[in-house]
């Protein structure tokens, strides 16, 4: 499991996950270069640390707002942090941001209705967007780092996390807590993602020829 974590750990600059993420971010930069400066970006669920790892913190004409359930720490002048819910961004006006960016968040907000609400809010507050989420059909579940975990019956997934440390999570013996943990992650299929973001284009992020995640983007 530690080997798998080493491969999947995006905090490690040498990991496969980091290399894949940098390639994806390179595509984002290509799109971003089309927009006149200054640019305002809303990162839904993001952190300053992420942008630092992407080498993107010394951009004087780019302002980045971070929205999280718990206010993230910011130390740079072109960042600001706001506590809020991705499914209810009433603190922002329609079209307030040039770009809405989100990385591996929409699968965490809950059931399909909440995912749809997040998608609607993204389309409302942003003139364009770039939203990434893991592929339901990729054989290694990216949070629990267990082969085919997302395809197993719910009862078996709960049992596994009750008795084993899996991926980024410690074992959770309490059944109700284990059920809540497993149920808190709802991976999306390509068709489901496009239904949430009608009219969007899709970018496929691949590892060893397999689609690891999708990016939906629109307005560029």
General description of the model:
The chain is of the alpha/beta class. It has two domains: 2-139 and 186-218, Rossmann fold, CATH 3.40.50.150; 144-184, no CATH class. It has seven helices and seven strands, in the order ααβαβββαβαααββ. The protein has helices spanning 2-8, 16-32, 48-53, 112-125, 154-163, 175-183, 190-196, and strands at residues 39-44, 62-68, 79-83, 99-103, 129-134, 201-207, 210-218. It has a seven-stranded mixed β-sheet, sandwiched between helices. The radius of gyration is 17 Å and the shape is globular. The termini are far apart. Mean pLDDT is 91; it is low at 2-7.
The secondary-structure class comes to: alpha/beta
Cα(first) to Cα(last) distance is 40 Å
If strands are numbered along the chain, what order do they take across the biggest sheet? 3-2-1-4-5-7-6
CATH superfamily of the largest domain: Vaccinia Virus protein VP39
Low-confidence stretches: 2-7
Q: Which oligomeric state applies?
A: single chain
Number of helices: 7
């Amino acid at each position: 499991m530690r080997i798998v974590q080493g491969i999947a750990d995006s905090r490690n600059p040498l990991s496969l996950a980091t290399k894949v993420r940098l390639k994806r971010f390179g595509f984002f930069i290509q799109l971003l270069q089309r927009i006149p400066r200054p640019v305002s970006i809303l990162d839904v669920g993001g952190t300053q640390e992420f942008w630092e790892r992407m080498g993107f913190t010394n951009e004087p004409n780019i302002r980045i707002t971070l929205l999280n359930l718990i206010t993230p720490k910011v130390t740079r002048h072109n960042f600001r942090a706001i506590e809020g819910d991705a499914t209810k961004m009433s603190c922002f006006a329609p079209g307030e941001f040039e770009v809405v960016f989100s990385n591996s968040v929409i699968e965490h907000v809950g059931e399909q209705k909440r995912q749809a609400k997040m998608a609607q809010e993204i389309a409302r507050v942003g003139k364009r967007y770039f939203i990434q989420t893991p592929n339901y059909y990729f054989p290694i579940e990216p949070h629990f780092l267990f082969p085919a975990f997302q395809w197993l019956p719910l009862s078996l997934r709960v049992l596994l996390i009750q008795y084993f440390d899996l991926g980024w999570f410690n074992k959770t013996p309490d059944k109700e807590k284990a059920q809540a943990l497993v149920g808190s992650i709802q991976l999306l299929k390509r068709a489901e993602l496009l239904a949430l973001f009608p009219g969007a284009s899709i970018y496929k992020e691949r590892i060893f020829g397999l689609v690891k995640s999708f990016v939906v983007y629109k307005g560029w």
